[in-house]
Amino acid sequence: MGYKSVEKPKAKHRKGLWSPDEDQRLRNYILKHGYSCWSSVPINAGLQRNGKSCRLRWINYLRPGLKRGVFTVQEEETILNLHRLLGNKWSQIAQHLPGRTDNEIKNHWHSYLKKKINVKADDSHLQMPSNSDSLGSPNSTDFPTDHTQSDDMTEHTKSSASQIPKILNPTKEGQSSLPKLLFAEWLSLDNSPGESFTNHAESQAPRHDHYYHSSSQDSLVSSLLNEGTFCGGHQYQNNQSEFSTSEIYSSRFNFEDQISGKGLLQCLYGDDLCSAFSFDNDMLYNENLFNYQGCNYEGE
DNA sequence: AAACCATGCAACCGCAGCATC
DNA sequence: TGATGCTGCGGTTGCATGGTT
């Protein structure tokens, strides 16, 4: 048995690239209903996909707050450092890069970073130990010569991972003490002053045709946000911050947690969310400046 | 201009772990 | 307690594009 089996007419599931219409259906459905069970999402949303495919599409492409585009130097350094510590734990690495997906990081690793460190390793073989550290990491000269070897974590890697500084280690709850994508970040990523609520994929020049441009905005959400209304009608209140920066950062407050199973609109209107937080516009703005300093991925 | 190759990215596949019955 | 279903993760593949010959 297991879960109550969702009615599954043995429909042939569509595969391949997603059409704009499919994207729109999925997006609309999740924004309205959330997802409590992925296997029921395609059925209820009228999609001929399997739940797995829907989940992947949402996580990697449609989910609000996704940063897309060129990886910044800082992000690359973070990936390199975390990969050295964690190995191919892409999902864990992604947790430390707000707005990036594990798939995106994995792709970037295989297409670029892996070669980068191999080249560096070759260089360091040619010109023996030096302190030059083009990667900017204090220990980057310790990179294995070939990270493909660490695709399966070696004992060494495992023991290294166990010595990961506390800040990088998940807490008891399986959470990292580094910030995930905060709701505030998620908001402002796509809702900069004067901007509507869109996925960055839509605002960036696409390289491939299959970067669909969904021109339809989530108008309801967009209007909610643009009106400055949030949390069941509460206005953002300046100078009423109840949380320090560190408190905000240490809060387990990421978008996934909020939307899962509830639906975005419910999330936006939810009392629990509203009562728990009083936002300070300036603070949020500054926080995002801090987080994305130098991340001029739009212009690169 | 055409064929070939390299690259980047989206999506699929298979597995492990967990939840439920 | 085993069977079954679901989710999440990492590895891999397939395709579109751009560059090179």
From TrEMBL:
Record flagged with keyword DNA-binding: yes
Gene3D superfamilies: Homeodomain-like
Stretches assigned to the Myb-like domain: 10-62, 63-113
GO MF entries: DNA binding
Domain HTH myb-type residue range list: 10-62, 63-117
BP GO terms, sorted: positive regulation of DNA-templated transcription
Swiss-Prot/TrEMBL keywords: Activator, DNA-binding, Nucleus, Repeat, Transcription, Transcription regulation
Source species, domain of life: Eukaryota
InterPro entries registered for this protein in UniProt: Homeodomain-like_sf, Myb_dom, Plant_SW-associated_TFs, SANT/Myb
Main location: nucleus
Protein's cellular compartments: Nucleus
CDD domains listed in its UniProt record: SANT (cd00167)
SUPFAM superfamilies tied to this protein: Homeodomain-like (SSF46689)
Spans annotated as Disordered: 124-174
Bias (Polar residues) ranges: 127-143
GO CC list: nucleus
Pfam family, one: Myb_DNA-binding
SMART domains: SANT
Bias (Basic and acidic residues): 144-158
Protein name: Transcription factor LAF1-like
Source organism of this protein record: Corymbia citriodora subsp. variegata
